[in-house]
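Hey everyone, long-time lurker, first post.

I ran two proteins through the pipeline my lab uses and got sequence/structure pairs for each. Pasting them in order. The first:
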Amino acid sequence: MLNRNRDDMLNGTSDHPPSYYAATATGTLEAKPLTEELECDVCVVGGGYTGLSAALHLARNGVKVALLEQGPAGWGASGRNGGQVHVGIRRGQYWIEKHLGLQHARALWNQALRAREHLDWLITTYGIDCDLKPGLLHAAHKQRHVLESHRYAEHLRRTYDYEHIRCVDREEMHSLVASQGYLGGTLDTRGGHLHALNLALGIGRAAQAHGAALYENTRVVGVTRRGGEWEVETQGGRVRSRQVLLACNGYLRGLSRTVERRVMPINNYIAVTEPLGETRANELVRHGYAVADSRFVVYYFRMTPDHRLLFGGGENYSYKFPRDIASYVRRHINRVFPQLSCVAIDYAWGGTLAITPSRLPFIRELEPGLYNASGYSGMGVVLAPYLGRVVAQAMLGDRNDFAQWSGIPVARFPGGVAFRAPTLIAAMSLAAWRDRI
């Protein structure tokens, strides 16, 4: 279990946290720390899905790219998340239509579909062994959410010709998930789940195979413009490059005030039970589906290939993890599956993701040659690798897809960097209270 102070949580460590993913990772990614000065075309800061994918696509096009990660590749949210595969972006299409207009909403939906196709392309092209399993249930815990989800599914089918989603009534939901807390919802067969860390490691190995230079355990302490190029300073070396991508998400650590005004880290927690056996696992969640519910602070869960329950629940907004993460998550598990109250928890860990005020990604060229991609708000498994590709394309001169994302308005958090946390805590606490009434 993790119990780290602020510095430990934000600083990379030489090993991955003691998660289920780390215990079951396949293959390795060999990369040394940067201990010298070097020059390249593009320097990528951050070794999660975004950075690794950007490095891959740049290297495929003959670009000399160096990636710097403060821990092992996938050390942050990319190697710790719930592994859920969602189609879309964090906000629903109704909201996007209202705030950005139908034309932009259609363009972003098409981008979301391309992001899902890109995930398949990565896994297939590079033979990434990450246990991709289809099927994502959106489970409604209140009757009004059932009606809203059914209406939304029909809207996707009618307006966007999305035929992969269908409505699920109360009876079917109870047959699919052995919990009395869900009253219906939808099933998206293009959604699903996978092994989060294995996906990151697979993308990293693919990037290396194309010639990208990856440096692990290399913390970046500054990014500075020097004439016509950028200088990226680390604790042990320095990189000079024409272009830089900040792909740090919740681990930005003061490298850009512009980003930090709009992208804020939050912590989320996951526990994995002891093996339940194939029969019991299938009784709890049928067909190996992933489940994400309608709470504002979402519960998400699914079965692992060795028939354990992997369950995500609970957030906080400080730089401290709970002392006993297993107990912290168990109370959330018990709300959904009280029949598992005596089942042992073998793994429990926390991770830091990042959100924006609108819950839409913050994709920008901050200054000429300095790019940022972050703020996926829990949707990074599909979006982050794709947006790494989108930024790579922009650096190569093709800015068509980049324009769709960089055109999304992302406001600052009220109060700026200093007061964003108290403001967010108040808003999130109110939303969490509404979940309970």
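...and the second, right after it:
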Amino acid sequence: MSALVSLLLPTRGRPALAERFLRSAAEQAERREAVEVVVYADEDDPLSHVLDAAGLACTTIVGPRATMGTLNSACLARSRGEIVVLCNDDIVIRTPGWDRRLRETHAALRDGVYLAYPNDLFKGRKLCAFPMLSRAACDLLGEPFPRAYKGAFIDYHLLDIFKRLEKRGTPRLVYLEDVVFEHMHYRTGKSAYDDTYRTRGRFDDDDTFIALRGERSEGAARLARRIDPLSPGAAPRRTRAPVRPRPNLPMRLVDFARALLPDAELPLRWRLFLVAWFAGRTLGAKGYLPGLQRRRSG
């Protein structure tokens, strides 16, 4: 129960929001001295270089603008905690003792294989908006936050890996419904539609998610072997060549279905969800669903 918790916080152009998040993390922590934050701030965002960490141990990385996967990976490399949490600057933590609940989850699963996530009062149980992993799981995955992801899909990437574990008969998804990390997203009316939201490419990572299917399969196999090295379910699966979605709309819809539906490593319900979701995103990106590009958060 003494595990250090590392909050990874890429931020840009939102010093007031970032400091609000840090205050809430510190004020609601049961053991503030066992929580650290690693901030990544862009070189051209000087106000984010000197954030008030509200008494938390803080490391700030200042570097060039990069993909979200690169930013989170840089923060991970500089962090020291046994528990790693991906954070946004538009969060407010509402639950006293949130860090104790993470340590309890961590202690209960001694092999370190779990994907925990809080209630964000937006997506809730449906999505691990703010993933919480052990250092051991991060090490097993190798690149838990792939640098190829420009601004979205890291949460879906991790969720997909643990859906594969679930299909293997080892459910390790832990939804902490009573731990509230409120997502103050503009789609909920809790914040303004600012430049950070406006400049994100909503659909830039769709093809990347499809391309990284093999990495998710291999990651799930490594986690399964950690849980039970002798389990038949931990045997490596035969990899398939990735489908490359074509730009033509009808062919693109077909390609997403070809990539997702036959993937027997995943529960059928998750496959059907992904097909429907990618179809909606494809139609939105092509302008067939007015307003979708602004509403979709990735």
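Reply from user beta_strand_b:
Welcome! Quick read of the second one: Strands lie at 5-11, 35-42, 57-63, 83-86, 91-93, 115-119, 132-134, 173-183. The first strand starts at residue 5 and ends at 11.
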